[in-house]
Amino acid sequence: MTTQRRTRISDIAKRLGVSNATVSRALSGDGYVKQDLADAIRAAALDMNYPLPSRAGGTQVIVAASYDAMVDLGRSQFTMHVLDGLRARADALGLTLDVQAFQDFAAVTELTQSADVLGLLLLTIDDATLTQAHDLTCPVVLVNGDDPAMRFSSVTPCNRSAAALATRHLIDRGHDRIVFLTRPGRRTIQRRREGWQDAMAGRFDPALVLEVPDWTAEAGQTAISQALARGERFSGIVAAGDILAMGAIAALNEAGLSIPKDVSVIGIDGLPQGRYVTPPLSSVEIPMPQVGAMALDLLCEDARNRDISVHYPVRRIELACKLVNRGSVAPALYRPVHSSTTPRSTKTAINTV
To answer: Are residues 122 and 261 part of one domain?
Structure first.
């Protein structure tokens, strides 16, 4: 495997037909370079992924995390891996991170007033916080969230396509009635529900959406146990998070059902602990560390661009996700029948319609 060579000052100089010294002066700000040429050099450096020095002066990045994000961190789920990516990228760029859990956004506002603050990352926040953040003067980037009004740039996984990928994986294996197990609330999770619904198309049945009150295995287990007790018929489960999928597996095992022979289960997240359940959990893997790293890169870029005439519009960046197929998905045992006159088997109620 070949690795891409890092861009050098000489590469930028060659593209623009100027000397290495001119490029160096323009990027560092040491020495006179005409403004239009300096702007062109910095724009080319950005385009060629050259790590520009920040002229904003700050070396500290505030990460303001919501209550939900910090609960998730304590459970070693999504937030932990996003922060790992953020910390690794900050070390590479020579920046320091100040991770703050907040309840009163006024405290976050006060933190951003320091001259040493490069900008603010908002991690898994709600719309009310977006409105408050609009008055800040420092660069702001959303992590694992988006702004419907497009006031702030953001980095998220492509949640809608991730859920569609998981659902189609089951459909391609003959599954017809596929439960979507989720906790409602955040816009990012709503995108996962939309992806499931996209893939289900003509198979869509609102009764197949099972909502839980919390992101825990216990909540997922309870929801599936209750669905089985009601006699719900399904042969596949797409869980909006791996932790819910693990709970679903526990409920199916408790009911004496075989996974994946009787019911297939797939999660969304790709948490490492999914490898250790029985059977190992198939999942759509979210690039969690990369979400954090790219958010920091975007914040640095916004901070740099405040000093030059190159102004990019607010951007919404979504990262692709990949399927990790382990042992919890198999072809459906029976081809589901849609006719309402077809008798329903009581022996195989889970896998027939």
So the answer is: no
Same domain, yes or no, for 217 and 262?
Answer: yes
Backbone angles phi, psi at 109, to 5 degrees: -55, -45
Tokens representing residue 14 in the block: 């060659």
- pLDDT, tens digit (0-9, with 9 covering 90-100), for 118-133: 999 999 988 888 988 9
Q: What angle do CA 76, 80, 85 make, to 5 degrees?
A: 150
Q: Do 171 and 82 belong to one domain? A: no
Quote the CA–CA distance of 263 and 274 in Å, as a whole number: 17
Helical segments of 121-241, H only: 127-133, 159-171, 187-200, 217-229
Nearest in space to 334 (alpha carbons), one of 251, 254, 263: 263
pTM strictly above 0.90: no
Q: Please name the amino acid found at residue 7.
A: T
Q: How far apart are CA 289 and CA 273, in angstroms?
A: 16
173 and 103, same structural domain? no
Minimum mean pLDDT among 4-8, 143-147, 242-246, 264-268: which range? 4-8
Q: Is the pLDDT of residue 47 over 60?
A: yes
